[in-house]
Design brief:
The complex is a heterotetramer, with 2 copies of chain A (286 residues) and 2 copies of chain B (572 residues). Chain A is an alpha/beta fold. Helices cover 29% and strands 16% of the residues of chain A. Chain A has an 8-stranded mixed sheet with strand order 2-1-3-4-6-5-8-7, sandwiched between helices. Chain B has 4 domains: 190 residues, 3-Layer(aba) Sandwich (Pyruvate-ferredoxin Oxidoreductase, domain 3), CATH 3.40.920.10; 181 residues, Rossmann fold (3-Layer(aba) Sandwich), CATH 3.40.50.970; 70 residues, no CATH class; 107 residues, Rossmann fold. The longest helix of chain B is centred in the first third of the chain and has 21 residues. The chains are: A alpha/beta (286), B alpha/beta (572). Chains in contact: A-B, A-C, A-D, B-C, B-D, C-D. The complex binds thiamine diphosphate (2 copies), iron/sulfur cluster (2 copies) and magnesium ion (2 copies). The site of one magnesium ion has 9 residues of chain C, from helix 3.
């Protein structure tokens, strides 16, 4: 068996700002993949557009850098056609929760077996600092000089959509994050991993320090049970002085791909093309 | 005299005009006739007025006629609406207890439809089968064939038997009283096995024959039946059919599936297609093949959801920001729909581009007879995959390698250790984001280069009538039947006219077209829209001068008479 | 003051099937409007496309029949431009939760002051019977012959998005429904009213009888408190033998329109057009 | 000799090339010069390579030049990239501690940028102001004006003072050592007050002058600054600016707001516009006015997000399924952007249609000098509202009443008791859904009728040079500056050429165009795309034969030299 190492995943030089939280996420992801021993040619990363969306270029694996907001539908299309691929979708908070919000909600409910990493810097970074759906309520940006409207809570929505795996990570804690990525990839079903990601250029409120002061680990909470939906929902709406990271909700349920007869055996992409096979249908028309 | 029998069945939505009509059409097809049938219905489930029109001929037919020979009226409104269009020997059939005033006014042939159903089949609701029988009785139609069709149509044996009884009752009743068999000679029809299918079915069958393994589509009239047909067969044919949250998801899923290596498709109408155009460019930029079936209906916006139009052509040709090659096909009939859909998949994969198959409500929902598809003729071209040999050697596979044809060899994820890297940003040959002018210029040129091969692969238009003529009637797509008929009738009237019909519309095979349409002739383009879109396209691609256009944009298909009338008004 | 009566709201003859649940909703709506004494010219109904989307034609008031999935953004655009209008958006479950899902989630979080009525028949009716996001899990339709994927729960999502008012009605109980509509219109902020609506032509599972057997009224539950978010979330996920109707969640929070200085005084549409006003800005450019 | 001073400031993203360049440009503008400045940057926040180019002339200028007179290099890469383009007397300025090898190689003029900043302003980070001073010192520029501009640029007084000190230090240093003032005669420049603004600012100002009260827009390069500018002024101008969840929401919100009666707009780029096309048809069908600013960039898909292209023209003209009238404008410079945006609102409301204003990255982000807008010339046409009188009488108001012009009188909700009823389905005059062919035909004709008036309202193209010429160079939109310059230079070289430039591109004023371009001349179209979209449109709308096209699709704007070179290759 091949043993994968970090070098196998070495990609282009990142064009991110020095100090950007995305570096931590990139490291954690590579670490998780190496730990899981997933070779680059068995992995597909699909990204949207934004700073986060550039991540695939800084990896070395199968990649599809899609449109803004459209990582998920491309990722699940690729997965349905070849369920042997390990598929990760990545994007920013604007990409995933604004432009791509509808795909996200419905992919969670249908439970496609992919991992979705959202680099949540609470800002539109690539376009130079506009409000995102997760920007703190009242946050002032060029497009929201009177303050951003109330922020959405991606974890609460994910739980309401009954996502199979809902977790929050922090780019400032690479090891912990790597652990979450491993669990997200290993969990059968749609795994949402929302990652607090400091943007040093455009978000001067939610900084490394701001997050560091607030985050605490759920696995260290004795009584916390991520299988309990009520508990999970209540935890998910916690945001302020204390912000939980770790697995918020986790559930086993059938993945979409397993519900279709066409996918029970071999992947679609390995099915032969047999024009003659429709012969039997033709008789219905005469 | 050539056979041309025109039957209309009319009633409220939910009354069953569609079923009656379909069974009649199928029976004629089984006898060996050429049949064309279209449906006219409103965007509602019950009430309103629907009708189903059938034309039965002894040679090709694929157009409607305004004239009616036999009308089956399931309600009062059908009588007042359609009787005025009864032809010289036209007759209307209605239930016995129709208002005597109307019976007198229109000379209706009454049949105790519900009474016979109750009496002979023990169920008033089988009146529709009595109506079927009545029509066939008048024609002295082969009753075994009729029973066979009824049998195939109704599943459970209990229902089948009673429906056959009901039909038989109607048959006998009408045969005795209203024999019209001498007017329509069905006896000389050759028993040739033909298919009767609509445009949606033919496109779906084409996709399946082409090996389409993935369909993501959001319901939209007129294309929804394609989804339902392929879904019904998905398990048997190892196909994934998924109805996602919206059309944007649909096309992106198809692109994702195609990236993984399967033949993938989405189907929709104009409104859904409007939502897909950003993704069209994604397909163009990432060179991921995808087939899109766009069933046009009368627009803009929601428009007339159950009516036809050819109003989306220039949109399809120019859709999405930026520039990239694409192909657009527009089948002229069901048979064409089958073969062009197969070609669409081949072109999509050969050139790694999006391909649009334009149907419309008329083509999608109308039934055509077609020669049984010869599946040995299905040709599959998956384009330029990596050879086993290349795969072994590849360490640094470049998904977007620049080649003389513009086509890059295509590897698939997990097919080898080659990594498949692509990007919606402008990218290097390796698929990674770039910013420099030189690479940009080379990559645009590479993609546009594919147009050259593609253009060579587009078939020239079909010519009907003599190869050269003083006047060329020109059309595209589903209006073929009416145009063909109009041309034939005008030739009978002594006009030196031919029909030049396009089904492979973009990139337009400009040279062949100029060869066929150049010279001194007059060119008249007939199309189902308000602005003469194909005429403009034809002119701008070839420089040919268009003498006039015959346009119709009321949501209804052409009739040959409409075209002839308009054309005559324009001829010098 | 004008007194509004039912006749003022009489519109075209509905093209719905006899027995359709939409008739009950139409009656309840008219009743509520008459009770609230809202004259037709002060009311705007914006609809999407579907059977439900035809409702405005059967009313007589200002109406904008928009595209499939696009009732909400048109409705809130109209509201922002003239906040004196009473604005109701209506549509089907496919319209609102599938095609229009993204608008719905974000309109709830921003809290635009409109009422959103979803005729939830758990099916795509106008297109003749395909699965909707609320179709029962496993429900068989033409596009889902192997069964529909897991249904979404609109109420849970609305609560997770912190909608100001979340309620469920039943088309079979017109008086109760009319009461809910009145409260939804009166509540300041985004009011979601999901209405169980039997479709007699295409949904032969979730029938009048099916619903009637299951629904019970929340206001009759002694201890139920719609201001309690945890309680509301737990109640929202109840679906099966017992289905709650009534107000599930209710909260006072600032409406979007009140957060913008431009809207503090008179409606936008009454603001004069003064080209000369930009004069003072021009000096910044020289 | 005419003044033509070309300055480039280059560095990494984040180093401040933009600020230096902008302050220089502003100072020249304040002096009374004609200034054009463009920005070249990558889609990243830090690192990479950016540059800001300025051209200073004593007559109109709105095009870039490849030649550099003064280069300010903030890093090593800027030297190697730009020094090769220094003109005959060109000089490069860089910090004192630049690699001596490079200094020798390129003959760089070094200035102790950081040292002077540290010494004189107490802050190394003010080196950029030293650089500004150095450039101006070389030119002997009016130092009061310079200080004034610096003062206006930096807000807090503490910073202002030190920046002025830093600039002064650079100024003195360069004036002493590197005086070049004799080469560029700035003394004869007339002090005329001009504005310096970019295309985005001019469009935003135009919208505000036109009384736009509602902007819903999702950020997208190059149009985002329009949102930010209008948001910054929203409270003062009683405007709602909302950033919604996506572009689909954006345009629908604008349509909703317009229905309520305010002037409403959305701004985006090609990708966002692709998502809006279904709504474009909604605007067309419901006859709700809306203005869309489409800032083109190099496509397809994400393409080159910070680069320019004119690649979306045919898409804009044909976008959305179905057929309905629309107008497309393409401003040639900032001043034009202001006036055309106002016209866009007028046409949108007069004809109750969607109007698209096409900018592109080049126009949107480049700075132009413009005569101060004379606001008394702003004309507002709100179309056909109901008269007070009509309002009183109306019991059954018909939103879509058929009139000879195709324009229906427009009532607003709550403006009276008239009910405003509209529908995306085909509808009656009253705005209610219909199914019949007759109403359909009349309503299509009614909507299309508006094109006639609209076409009359479209201004003919602008002609520069003689009215008739052997050769016409033809262009549209933002490439005006380079085309104009190329035409001028070619005339100097003795060619009998003129420029016919379009800014009101759809519906094309065909008759006026044929009058201007007909006859025996040769027509060459220059545009920033790969397929010659405007050339095709021009040909198909007028039948004029196009002799050739000059195309560029590397994401960079034209230079006059590029056009001249290509044109010469084609001339007989
Ligand atoms: C359809 C479309 N709309 C808008 C854009 C412009 N755009 C690019 S990235 C981006 C937002 C980036 O924010 P986020 O997704 O949070 O990513 P980040 O840069 O913060 O990582 C936007 C609006 C686009 N490329 N496509
Ligand atoms: C963009 C777009 N996609 C698809 C359609 C076709 N369509 C019309 S109504 C409808 C679904 C109707 O379902 P629902 O919203 O639940 O309303 P119902 O008819 O059940 O009341 C669909 C898919 C459309 N009109 N526009
Ligand atoms: S702008 Fe923010 S998110 Fe983007 S690279 Fe810089 S720090 Fe990271
Ligand atoms: S199809 Fe269903 S929802 Fe539509 S009108 Fe009929 S019963 Fe009502
Ligand atoms: Mg972000
Ligand atoms: Mg429904």
């Amino acid at each position: 068996m091949t043993v994968v190492n970090l070098q196998d995943y070495a990609g282009m030089q990142p064009a991110w700002c020095p100090g950007c939280g995305n570096f931590g996420i990139l490291s954690a992801l590579k670490k998780a993949l190496v730990d899981l021993n997933i070779p680059p040619y068995n992995l597909l990363i699909v990204s949207g557009i934004g700073q986060a969306g550039k991540l695939p270029h800084y990896m070395k694996c199968n990649t599809f850098n899609s449109l803004h907001g459209r990582a998920i539908p491309v990722a699940i299309g690729a997965k349905m056609a070849n369920q042997e691929l390990t598929v990760i979708a990545v994007g920013g908070d604007g990409d995933g929760y604004a432009e791509g919000g509808n795909h996200w909600i419905h992919a969670m409910r249908r439970n496609h077996d992919i991992t979705y990493m959202v680099h949540n810097n609470q800002i539109y970074a690539l376009t130079k600092g506009q409000a995102s759906p997760t920007s703190d309520t009242g946050f002032i940006t060029g497009t929201t000089p009177e303050g951003s409207p109330p922020q959405i809570n991606p974890l609460a929505l994910a739980i309401a959509a009954d996502a199979a795996f809902v977790a929050r990570g922090f780019a400032g804690d690479v090891d912990h994050l790597a652990g979450l990525i491993k669990q997200a990839i290993s969990h059968k079903g749609f795994a949402l991993l929302d990652i607090l990601q400091p943007c040093v250029s455009f978000n001067h409120i939610n900084t490394y320090e701001w997050y560091s002061k607030r985050v605490y680990k759920l696995e260290e909470e004795k009584k916390y049970n991520p299988a309990d939906k009520t508990m999970a929902f209540n935890k998910s709406i916690e945001w302020g002085d204390r912000i939980p990271i770790g697995i918020v909700y986790s559930k086993e349920r059938p993945v979409f791909e397993s519900t279709l007869k066409a996918l029970r055996n071999i992947p679609l992409v390995k099915q032969p093309l047999e024009p003659g096979k429709i012969q039997k249908l033709l008789t219905d028309f005469s | 005299m050539a056979l041309d029998l025109r039957i209309v069945v009319g009633g409220e939505a939910g009354q069953g005009a569609q079923t009656i009509g379909f069974i009649l059409a199928k029976a004629f097809a089984r006898l060996g006739c050429h049949v064309f049938a279209d449906q006219d219905y409103e965007s509602r489930i019950r009430g309103g007025h629907n009708f189903f029109r059938i034309r039965v001929r002894d040679s090709h037919v694929s157009a409607v006629s305004e004239v009616i020979d036999i009308l089956v009226a399931l309600n009062r409104e059908s009588l007042s609406l359609h009787c005025p269009r009864l032809g010289e020997n036209g007759v209307a059939i209605a239930d016995m207890n129709t208002d005597p005033e109307l019976v007198r006014q229109y000379g209706i042939l009454t049949v105790p439809l519900s009474d016979l159903a109750a009496e002979k089949a023990g169920n008033k609701l089988m009146a529709n089968s009595v109506a079927i029988g009545s029509v066939m009785g008048m024609l002295g139609f082969n009753s075994e064939i009729l029973s066979g069709v009824i049998k195939d149509h109704f599943q459970s044996s209990a229902i089948v038997e009673n429906n056959i009884k009901a039909a038989r009752a109607g048959y006998d009743y009408a045969r005795q009283r209203y024999d019209r068999s001498s007017s329509y000679d069905l006896s000389s029809i050759m028993r040739i096995e033909r298919m009767l299918l609509n445009g949606n079915e033919s496109v779906a069958l084409g996709a399946m024959a082409a090996g389409c393994k993935f369909l993501a589509a959001y319901p939209m009239t007129p294309s929804t039946p394609i989804i339902e047909f392929m879904a019904a067969n998905a398990a048997d044919f190892a196909t994934v059919v998924i109805q996602p949250e919206d059309e944007i998801a649909a096309i992106h899923m198809a692109i994702g599936a195609a990236y993984s290596g399967v033949r993938a498709m989405t189907v929709t109408s104009g409104g859904g297609f409007s939502l897909m155009v950003e993704a069209l460019g994604l397909s163009g930029m990432t060179e991921t093949p995808v087939v899109i079936v766009e069933g046009q209906r009368a627009g803009p916006a929601i428009g007339l959801p159950t009516r036809t139009e050819q109003g989306d052509l220039l949109f399809a040709v120019n859709a999405s920001h930026g520039e990239f090659p694409r192909a657009v096909f527009a089948p002229s009939c069901a048979e064409d729909g089958f073969w062009l859909t197969i070609k669409a998949f081949n072109m999509a994969e050969k050139y790694q581009i999006p391909v649009i198959v334009m149907t419309d409500h008329h083509l999608a929902s109308s039934y055509f007879t077609a020669e049984k598809f010869d599946l040995s003729g299905v040709y599959i071209d998956r384009g330029l995959p990596l050879s086993e040999d290349e795969m072994g050697k590849l360490s640094e596979y470049k998904r977007h390698r620049i080649t003389p044809s513009g086509i890059s060899p295509r590897a698939l994820p997990m097919q080898s250790h080659a990594l498949v890297v692509t990007d919606s940003d402008e990218h290097s040959e390796a698929g990674h984001i770039i910013e420099d002018a030189e690479t940009r210029t080379r990559m645009v040129a590479k993609r546009m280069k594919k147009l050259e091969g593609l253009r060579r692969d587009m078939a020239p238009p079909h010519v009907f009538g003599p190869k050269t003529a003083d006047i060329s009637l020109v059309g595209w797509g589903s209006s073929f039947g009416a145009l063909h008929e109009a041309m034939g009738l005008l030739r009978q009237q002594g006009l030196n006219i031919n029909l030049v019909h396009f089904t492979e519309v973009w990139p337009l095979p400009a040279q062949e077209t100029t060869d066929l349409l150049g010279g001194d002739r007059k060119i008249y383009v007939a199309e189902n829209n308000a602005t003469g879109q194909f005429a403009r396209l034809l002119n701008s691609e070839t420089g040919l001068k268009i003498s006039g256009t015959v346009l119709k944009y009321d949501g209804r298909p052409f009739t040959s008479q409409y075209i002839i009338d308009r054309l005559k008004g324009m001829l010098p």
